[in-house]
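Why run this: before we spend reagent on co-expression, it is cheaper to look at a predicted model of the complex and decide which construct boundaries make sense. The entries below are exactly what would go into the expression plan.
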Amino acid sequence: MAKILMKGNEAIAESAVRAGGLLYFGYPITPQSEIAEYLAHRMPEVGGVFLQIESEVAVANVLYGAAGAGARVWTSSSSPGISLMMEAVSYIAAAELPCVIVNIVRCGPGLGGILPSQGDYFQAVKGGGHGDYRCLVLAPCSVQEAVDLMPLAFDRADRYRNPVIVIGDGMIGQMMEPVEFTEQQFPPLPPKDWATTGCQGRKPNVINSLYLDPVEEEKLNFKLAAKYEQMKKNEVRYEKFRTDRELECLLVAYGTTARVCKTAIQRLDDEGIPTGLLRPITLFPFPEEAIYELSQRARFLLSVEMSTGQMVEDVRLAVGRSKPVYFYGRAGGMVPSPEEVVDAVKRYLAGGDR
Amino acid sequence: MAKILMKGNEAIAESAVRAGGLLYFGYPITPQSEIAEYLAHRMPEVGGVFLQIESEVAVANVLYGAAGAGARVWTSSSSPGISLMMEAVSYIAAAELPCVIVNIVRCGPGLGGILPSQGDYFQAVKGGGHGDYRCLVLAPCSVQEAVDLMPLAFDRADRYRNPVIVIGDGMIGQMMEPVEFTEQQFPPLPPKDWATTGCQGRKPNVINSLYLDPVEEEKLNFKLAAKYEQMKKNEVRYEKFRTDRELECLLVAYGTTARVCKTAIQRLDDEGIPTGLLRPITLFPFPEEAIYELSQRARFLLSVEMSTGQMVEDVRLAVGRSKPVYFYGRAGGMVPSPEEVVDAVKRYLAGGDR
Amino acid sequence: MQIETVFAGFGGQGVMLAGRVLAEVGMKLGKEVVWLPSYGPEMRGGTANCVVIIADEPIASPIIAHPRDTVVMNRPSLEKFCPAQKPGGYAIVNSSLINIRPDRDDIRVVEVPANEVAIEAGSGKAANMVMLGAYVGVTGIVPVEAVIEQIKEEFQAKAKLIPLNITCVERGYDIGRAAAGYCV
Amino acid sequence: MQIETVFAGFGGQGVMLAGRVLAEVGMKLGKEVVWLPSYGPEMRGGTANCVVIIADEPIASPIIAHPRDTVVMNRPSLEKFCPAQKPGGYAIVNSSLINIRPDRDDIRVVEVPANEVAIEAGSGKAANMVMLGAYVGVTGIVPVEAVIEQIKEEFQAKAKLIPLNITCVERGYDIGRAAAGYCV
Amino acid sequence: MGRKAKVTIEKNRCKGCELCVTYCPKQVLAMSREINDKGYFYAQVVNQDACIACRFCGMMCPDTAIEIAVEEPEKSEVKADG
Amino acid sequence: MGRKAKVTIEKNRCKGCELCVTYCPKQVLAMSREINDKGYFYAQVVNQDACIACRFCGMMCPDTAIEIAVEEPEKSEVKADG
Amino acid sequence: MKVIFRRPESLSVTPTHYCPGCTHGIIHRLIAEVIDELGLREKAVGIAPVGCSVLAFNYFNFDFQQAAHGRAPAVATGIKRARPDLIVFTYQGDGDLASIGMSEIIHAANRGEKFTVVFINNAIYGMTGGQMAPTTMPGQVTTTSPRGRDVNDVGYPIRMCELLSSLRTPAFIERVAVHNPKQVINARRALKQAFIYQRDRVCFTFVEFLSTCPTNWGMSPVQATRWLEENMMPYYPVKNFKTPEFTEGQNAD
Amino acid sequence: MKVIFRRPESLSVTPTHYCPGCTHGIIHRLIAEVIDELGLREKAVGIAPVGCSVLAFNYFNFDFQQAAHGRAPAVATGIKRARPDLIVFTYQGDGDLASIGMSEIIHAANRGEKFTVVFINNAIYGMTGGQMAPTTMPGQVTTTSPRGRDVNDVGYPIRMCELLSSLRTPAFIERVAVHNPKQVINARRALKQAFIYQRDRVCFTFVEFLSTCPTNWGMSPVQATRWLEENMMPYYPVKNFKTPEFTEGQNAD
Ligand SMILES: Cc1ncc(C[n+]2csc(CCOP(=O)(O)OP(=O)(O)O)c2C)c(N)n1
Ligand SMILES: Cc1ncc(C[n+]2csc(CCOP(=O)(O)OP(=O)(O)O)c2C)c(N)n1
Ligand code: SF4
Ligand code: SF4
Ligand code: SF4
Ligand code: SF4
Ligand code: SF4
Ligand code: SF4
Ligand SMILES: [Mg+2]
Ligand SMILES: [Mg+2]
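The model came back. Tokens follow.
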């Protein structure tokens, strides 16, 4: 198939449709409304469901219902809208329902602004809702990768019976890049025999997250914890860039900032400062081991984010105190430039401001 | 004043009233509804406002309005209800408004159960809402301490113009203990000259969190980040228990589990295993340095939680890889017993299951 | 010294109040106390229980896996709590409603026909006070006079219930005292 | 090799489309491309702009602080973007609406009376195509034929607009070619 | 309605709410003086012969403790009041 | 209403929406052929004498670009239409 | 002997945790009876709210989902849009539906989602121990209105049938009661009608049940039925508010 | 010469970011005029929604709060309960108020919170680029109803005045329009009335404005005023729905 030039938001929508994500419920919010708008056209063509719901609170609960009835269901929103879903996401995780949630992050906190940001890292990765649960979090850095990760997101959601968050930023959503839709193959999934589809020929199914007996509730908690351990074992994804050498500095960055870092690395190479990048593709599970390993080859690490410092904590957790871990961040819609990253690296190299 | 026997929830309510928290808005949820019920009686007596609001989503936005108008305002809820407040809490933090939110944590995720839990640590500490913001988080371990921390919570909320979360669990809320209400003195607070109280004799005030210009939004983000750094410098609170000696193990635990740990330590002492406890009273800011320091005296650390492992990450961040940090947790409403903690310590001492 | 006591029974039997009265008395005697209700799913319809801890030192963990004593007012409570008691503890058993005994020989059991005693005193609803009185009588954990003072305070608003409750405490106390001899 | 071009103007001047056409052409020529709109607060009423990147290698950062070239259709755009251009880049300036020049001597500036040319060709609305044509003419970044092919595809649904737009691209191209000589 | 009816109350399902007793038009039912396994005074049939099989007791019982049968089979059998 | 009125339109505030022009009952206003600083064709007064000071133009202007004055002071001065 | 009244098949044998005389139990039975009668058990999906009926999934013999507090209509929307062939109903208390869930019920109704809502108005928050609900009567004492509901401070009780009836889309809306046999019979009829409309994909269907909460009203079950009759019925008229006009033919079963 | 019409004092000089001919601007001016006229500027607190009017705080000369999407009535409740002496109004679009904020507006209205709601019904989501609103007309094309609003799929437009009027508590509810001078005059009267009732602490007050969105309707501002008249007015009748009966005396200013 020839490549076509597509806006990130639309490409995500198309990829989801092709992956069988045929039920979409959403509520408009910049910078991702094109997803809904695209699907308003597209879903009727493929016999899917597009429905605008009254609020993000409701959207997430509609997902719960539809997922519980066995559908491949998804939504998309941006930061404040995602915050409104927190209760329901916690329910979805607790009831072990599969769904995909795309967060095209904008600046916060509060109403903030509509420019790109990575300020929702903690919310996505540590679980912004109540209780012990985790979402699998995928962070594409290009339109093509967003397209490629959507089928994976649906597959893993079904496989783990767990919400999967695809986290982008306004840049990924708004940017056009050439994309190709290739069909991905996954091992067969178990039947959704737990879904509430009418109890003909079987015992009634119940979708539930209430366990008044602490023994039962603890069982659920430990079961979920075990599932997240499974994810940590099997789902870690990352990209290494110019790391096959001794490094002055290992950059860690995801999404848009990772691309910025690549340019910075090229420039640093020009200046004879060997630098590498570890780009987490899964934010949860976090590529701890890979970072730890690479960290041993670098004099220090620098986490580059569009935030005031979130992922850096996970980098520090990965590295311990074995190597210094620094942070460079811009916020509020400001995107770090490659020059800034170059400068930051040089500053720390010189024993800079820390 | 003579001590009186009071239920945690009611004592919290009374202490808030005495601290001038005279506007309370809330929505019922177990195990903290006694707070609202107490105030429904009490507020009219002191000329305060008690109002039951239709939902937690609305409650948090009522707080925003009232705080913006200069009032000392607060609410209380439990886990799922707190999740519904996440968008507004992010707004409150962004608009730099003071308010106090009491979370009497119950088991999650989802509807979970109503028994005690510490599963909302991440949400409270890392910020469950979108964007870069933090709440000051206070974690009492007894009814008396809950009473003592409420005035501090209000003071710090006003001082930092930031939401303060008081995090308890069903145990703290439901238990009766003798309490004394003592008046606390704080340095004078600056006037709330930013509040929307009518613009008579001054320029109009605006309470806002929207900054379309990334330069402005970034300024806000950095300003907030600086404020949180201030908190880290000035607000760290913790208790040390039997730590003035060489330790086999340093326990780290807050709230109810800290009390369990104290009993465990007594038993371990009986067995000649010197163990200490660092009990964080502020969860954010986290007593990193104190833990690091003490960790150097211990062979290993054990984070004891009613969760499947949340605070343990912050303990690891504090300690780096310099000492092993283990985790012992119960979940779902199960409370670790002192015996279990003793066993866990001994297990790790023996080079146990890790 | 720390003594933990579970008060347990049907919802409506007044076990929470009995426990609270004991805790109040303990506090007024200058002891450290905790009263911790179970507020689990059993609240509606099923059993109710609370733990009272009275101690000389600050109370570390309020969660008591193995209480020293139990005051059980119905059979499910006996079945649930007596097996977990510490050896050497006391079990005050409401024999009006319970026709079994704890299957242990390392605790001291006192049977109190609390409902009968209370009905005789004026109302079966005060059986909880009979049990409390008996517990105090058996263990001497607090002076019975202090309990009676507390009852007066507790029922201030419903003054006409005071005599009944005091009588029940006293009768229970007497039963307890009498039993103290043989059960120890 | 990587070339970054900012297309900027009033909302409604069609700068987004002009940029997109260039990006499509680049893609079809087998290059790496990115088209990145600004979607900030300036969207409503104010200026609009997009960046097109065309490169031989995969494009790392799509955020371009210093684009090589600019195609500016109104004065605020010139004021905003030309100062940031890389030395040696090109600035295509819509002289119909802009009566100043970038204050730089290290970039190559071509003035194009795009609105006049477009009005003459049939509609002032196609001024964006004049600018695009001129840009292609000056820089040779892509063959003009490819641009014309793309225009045909782009306006498939509104076929009657195709000739106008092609004419505009061609006239712009000619202006660009002619200028290429002196501006280099 | 003159046919013979038999009302059965499942003793240990009964929560003693008295709704059946109250809304039986024929005083067929009454509360016991003893408690059942759950600790409730339960409803019992005290005057079976007066029963007119109106099903009111069953309709009012929140705990489906009541079953009603009649001697002759009818047209709309299990339907309660449809 | 026969008194003399003066309508002033702040050229660079105008966004050229034509509402004033459309809803003026007396064709006092018309759109310019030139654009203002914001790039809009703006409204202008073309027939001041016909103005009856009805204030309709001001009421319809979303951008408070219009000010209206009359020769003699009136009772309810600044009140627009209260 | 021929059994003419017994536990319907769709109701499980499990005893409920409801308080003695709580009419939640009656309404459960009615739902089960209607679903049995229409032969819908194997296509049915119920949605339990957060409230005393949170464990409803234990009491029915068909598929169930447990929804977050107030969000049952959103959950039902999801199920029904995913599987329009299923028979879906929400079971919601007045705190759940009329307080926290107001937005969800109004929008689901207004979209005309084709499921059935069983709305239990007992004028109080039962499960959490008797707090004021939006439906609490003027002057009624609750744990959060200890001096009685003050309409000058918190307004008058919300009448959901009236509110929803003012929307154009929702087409079957009825209020019923279950505090005596006559009302139960009527309630059953209305409920059945609602499920028929749903089955035939006619419209959104809403049945409000006036229900008792003896425990939190602080009275015996029998007193509670009388309190309901005397206090709630005058304010909450039992009647049909809306019936789809265009489907007379389909009314018959 | 005596100025008989000029920018009111309560309106700031800052030019708005609204599109040409958007009637948000007219409504802003009316609010400012009424507040000036009643002398309330120094006690006024406005609440900006999320929507095109999110920056309203820049356009008025008095205190403002910016609320989360849909939550302005909750924010207003907080302000007014904290400071009953202030004059508080929310300014909300139809997406804000009738979609995501449905619960907040209904409950604030039903509690009888004594503030004023200025509700801008332009049948669309303006700010986010023209998606369907709950108030979008049947058949109306929007970016999320590209084939026109299908009432069989998403129901009929919600009429907020009618909905709120079905509640007992809220006492002043009126719908007005601003698409021609006559309507503007009428709108101003209603708005003033609302603020008077608020000032006198009589009741919750609600004024719905039919408003245009030329940009997202895809027409010129003048066309938009006509489209409103022809399409919206018949479905959304401009009239008073409720006036407090017991306060006739206070109506005069
Ligand atoms: C988000 C959230 N808020 C609050 C609660 C606590 N809660 C549980 S049930 C309930 C109200 C129940 O009342 P109602 O809906 O009237 O049902 P009833 O118990 O009366 O049948 C509340 C507030 C919750 N579980 N989740
Ligand atoms: C929680 C949340 N969801 C969605 C949005 C995105 N959003 C901003 S404005 C808006 C709708 C605006 O429409 P309306 O309220 O009708 O106001 P208008 O722009 O038409 O005046 C939406 C959905 C948001 N900011 N926050
Ligand atoms: S069937 Fe009718 S008459 Fe017979 S016991 Fe029941 S209620 Fe009474
Ligand atoms: S109605 Fe049912 S539960 Fe109530 S008393 Fe009669 S049989 Fe027992
Ligand atoms: S005041 Fe009336 S007549 Fe005069 S210009 Fe304005 S609208 Fe026209
Ligand atoms: S109404 Fe105002 S903005 Fe519109 S054309 Fe007239 S003066 Fe200009
Ligand atoms: S609390 Fe009320 S509603 Fe809940 S089960 Fe008991 S009586 Fe029924
Ligand atoms: S988008 Fe619509 S509502 Fe928003 S400013 Fe423009 S015309 Fe007005
Ligand atoms: Mg209720
Ligand atoms: Mg709108």
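Residues 181-199 of chain H form the longest helix (19 residues). Chain H has a mean pLDDT of 96. Bring this page to Monday's planning discussion.
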